[in-house]
Amino acid sequence: FFSKVDEKTKTETQSIVAVPVRFRDTCLGVIELINCIGPEGFDARDLKLLEALSDFAAIALENARHVKKIHELTITDDCTSLYNARHMGFILETEIYRSQRYNYEFSIVFIDLDHFKQVNDTHGHLVGSRLLAEIGNALKEHCRLIDFAFRYGGDEFVVLLPQTSKENALNVARRLHKLVRETTWLVPEELNIRLTPSVGVASYPVDSRTKEGLLHLADEAMYLVKNTKRDSVAAANMGILPNPVASAESAG
User: Fold this and answer.
1) Which domains does the chain have, with CATH numbers?
2) How confident is the model over 199-221, as pLDDT tens digits?
3) Which of 28, 58, 217, 250 could lock 236 by a disulfide, CB 3.0 to 4.6 Å apart?
4) Is the pTM of the predicted complex or chain greater than 0.90?
């Protein structure tokens, strides 16, 4: 019993009965009754009633935990633990509504890993999955708390940037491009894999005011890079942007 409860409640604990809220071998909490009304205090009947209540509480808590877990499984990707494409559609619709209501801008960044098939062909699909998970985690870590990172499918990722103009989104896209390009991946496994990404950007409302339009334009910009030079960033209605990293290497 935590004695400071009396200090906080300005009462004096004279009798107490407590039982654990237990599900199988796991203790989920404790239920306590304090200060029985009447001179005799708590008895065996009170304890039996509290134990029954504890059993119901344990089942309710465990069911709630499973419902939450099931919900998480429906919106997250098994491989990367990022949000999945289904949840991306919901978040994108929500962000459009918020942006319309409060006159915000926001942007999305598509990231496709160049020549990822070669990783699977060379090292196998299990290594490919671990690589996707490591890259997904790195993308998430380099996002703000208000941003969302998704695995769109295959080796494609999407980052949604609330309250972010197109100009600022291009800066983020360049940073993420540099992150993927300059990181050596799966170092603990001594695989030391290097990759380059093709990146596309689209923004609300300057490029499109619809979910479908934004997704199409960001995807189109990304494929413009992928089907030409790769290893670059492109933006809707702007084309492929100069790549400062590649330019510096060429100059060197």
Assistant:
1) 4-75 (3.30.450.40), 85-251 (3.30.70.270)
2) 999 999 999 999 999 999 999 99
3) 217
4) no
